[in-house]
Amino acid sequence: MEIKKIVENKEDFMELLLLADEQKNMVNEYLYRGDLFALYDDDLKTVSLVTGEGENIYEIKNIATYEKYQGKGYGKYMIKYIIENYKNKCKILLVGTGDSKKTVSFYKNSGFVYSHTLKNFFTNNYDHKIFEDGKQLIDMIYLKIEF
Ligand SMILES: CC(C)(COP(=O)(O)OP(=O)(O)OC[C@H]1O[C@@H](n2cnc3c(N)ncnc32)[C@H](O)[C@@H]1OP(=O)(O)O)[C@@H](O)C(=O)NCCC(=O)NCCS
Q1: Any idea which architecture 2-146 has in CATH?
Q2: Candidates 23, 103, 115: which one to mutate for ligand 1, based on the most atoms within 8 Å of Cβ?
Q3: pLDDT-based confidence at 19, cuts 50/70/90?
Q4: pTM above 0.90, yes or no
Q5: Which of 9, 87, 92, 93 is most buried when burial is the number of CB atoms within 10 A of its CB?
Q6: Whole-angstrom Cα distance, residue 79 to residue 95?
Q7: Domain ranges for the chain
Q8: What pLDDT sits at residue 113?
Q9: Percentage of the residues of the chain whose pLDDT score is greater than 70
Q10: Ligand 1 proximity of 64 Cβ (cutoff 6 Å)
Q11: Cβ partners under 8 Å of residue 146, min gap 6
């Protein structure tokens, strides 16, 4: 298993990035200003994208594993790798997610704790309703790790 930092042709990873953030213009907002990582186990399994958000703050904007490879530990491996790589670069690592039990516990299991809520983020920024596990996403829940 290996994780590579992708610096060219980032749009080649769009299909996977859209799994976690289904509106292309939202992905394009951070694709070129962020650090893109791709996890390969033979072939591509997981991507993640991290942006600088001001002094001492980085944010995981996107993490996605191809559906058929989910639940095999690739996501957790990627999150650990990002935590290791950013702990000396910043004081706070943030991640924003919809209010979905599954994803919130995915981050909590990796050491993130609740930070704050951005009210109406999904209804204000997306041109259509977003559902996860049958529930409409309204607010963005931010979690953080303080180093
Ligand atoms: C969330 C996600 C990145 C996790 O990646 P993964 O490779 O499946 O992660 P792992 O195999 O390391 O699983 C980690 C945990 O996530 C849980 N999980 C599995 N599938 C999941 C899913 N579809 N959504 C959320 N969590 C999931 C697993 O149960 C596991 O928990 P456990 O450690 O208690 O067994 C992946 O499920 C995914 O791509 N989901 C769709 C995109 C998405 O929602 N991204 C996050 C946006 S904020």
Answers
A1: 3-Layer(aba) Sandwich (3.40)
A2: 103
A3: very high
A4: yes
A5: 93
A6: 11
A7: 2-146
A8: 98
A9: 100
A10: yes
A11: 91, 92
101 lines ligand 1 (CB under 6 A): no
- Asked whether 123 lines ligand 1 (CB < 6 A), one says no
The pLDDT value recorded for residue 75 is 98
Nearest atom in ligand 1 to 66's CA = 39
What is the 3-class SS of 53-114, one letter each residue?
A: CCCCEEEEEEEEECHHHCCCCHHHHHHHHHHHHHCCCCCEEEEEEECCHHHHHHHHCCCCEE
The pLDDT of residue 133 is 87
Distance from Cα 27 to the centre of ligand 1, integer Å: 19
Atom 9 of ligand 1, nearest CA residue: 75
- pLDDT tens readout for residues 27-82: 999 999 999 999 999 999 999 999 999 999 999 999 999 999 999 999 999 999 99
